[in-house]
Design brief:
- The structure is a single chain.
- The chain has a single domain, classed as Ferritin, core subunit, four-helix bundle (Ferritin), CATH 1.20.1260.10.
- Helix 3 packs antiparallel against helix 6.
- The protein contains eight helices and no strands.
- It has 213 residues and is an all-alpha fold.
- The longest helix is centred in the last third of the chain and has 33 residues.
- It binds fe (ii) ion (2 copies).
C-alpha cells in the first residue's frame, strides 16, 4: 500500500540503509565491551550470592534510613506505616541470614550503590521541603522508589533461587518480596486517599476549581 505521507521529493531524498562494515562493527565492540574484573562471576550461583550480599547491605542501611523518614513525616498514617515496615525490614534481615545459611554461604553485606543513591535522594527531598504535607508527599515518593527497587531485587533473587534448585531459599525470598509489594501498596493508598491532597494547599485547590469551571 502506498504511504500517503510520502511525497515524490521524500522518496528521492530517502537514503538507503547503511550497512556497518566489519571494521566498524569491531570498533563498536572494542569501545563498548565492558571488561570483566578478575573477581567477576562466571556462574549464576555467584551472581545470586552477590545479589544477596547487595540486598543484605541495603536492608541494613534501611534500618537507619526508615526511622529518619518516620521522624520527619507529619501524617500519623505515614509514620505508622513506616514504623511497621521498619519492623518488617528487621525480619527481612533475619530471613536473609537464614537464606545465607541454607545455601551454605557466610552472611556478608556488600555496599549497594543503588540503594545508597535512593537513600541519599530521600535525604535531599526532606532537605528541600518544609516539614508538613509537602514533605510527607516527598517521603512517600522516595519510599516508593526504594520499595520498587526492593521488589525488583527480591523478584530476581526468588527466580534465580528457583532456577538453582534452592527452593527453601526461594520461599523465604518470596515472602520478603510480598512484604515489599504490600508496603508499596499501602504507600500508594496513603498518597491517593490522603497525603497528596493535603499537600495541595487551599488556594491551589480554589485555583484548580476555577480553571475547571
Ligand atoms: Fe526490605
Ligand atoms: Fe521495603
Amino acid at each position: 500500500m502506498k504511504d500517503s505521507t510520502t511525497t515524490k521529493k521524500d522518496a528521492a531524498t530517502t537514503k538507503p540503509a547503511v550497512k556497518p562494515t566489519t571494521a566498524l562493527k569491531k570498533e563498536i565492540e572494542r569501545k563498548h565491551m565492558v571488561e570483566a574484573k578478575s573477581t567477576a562471576a562466571e556462574k549464576l550461583r555467584e551472581l545470586f550470592v552477590d545479589g544477596l550480599k547487595d540486598i543484605y547491605w541495603a536492608e541494613k542501611a534501611l534500618t537507619k534510613a526508615i526511622p529518619k523518614m518516620a521522624k520527619n513525616a507529619t501524617s500519623a498514617k505515614l509514620t505508622a506505616g513506616l514504623t511497621s515496615h521498619l519492623v518488617e525490614t528487621e525480619g527481612q534481615i533475619s530471613r536473609l541470614e537464614k537464606v545465607f545459611k541454607i545455601i551454605g554461604e557466610k552472611a556478608v553485606a556488600k555496599k549497594c550503590d543503588a540503594m545508597d543513591g535512593l537513600i541519599e535522594e530521600g535525604k535531599s527531598i526532606m532537605e528541600e521541603t518544609e516539614a508538613g504535607p509537602v514533605r510527607d508527599a516527598g517521603i512517600i515518593a522516595a519510599s516508593q522508589k526504594i520499595e520498587h527497587y526492593e521488589i525488583a531485587t527480591y523478584g530476581t533473587l526468588t527466580a534465580w533461587a528457583k532456577t538453582l534448585g534452592e527452593n527453601e531459599a526461594a520461599e523465604l525470598l518470596w515472602t520478603s518480596l510480598n512484604e515489599e509489594k504490600d508496603a508499596d501498596r499501602s504507600l500508594t493508598e496513603a498518597a491517593y486517599h490522603d497525603i497528596n491532597f493535603n499537600a495541595v494547599d487551599a488556594d491551589e485547590m480554589m485555583d484548580n476549581k476555577k480553571t475547571k469551571k
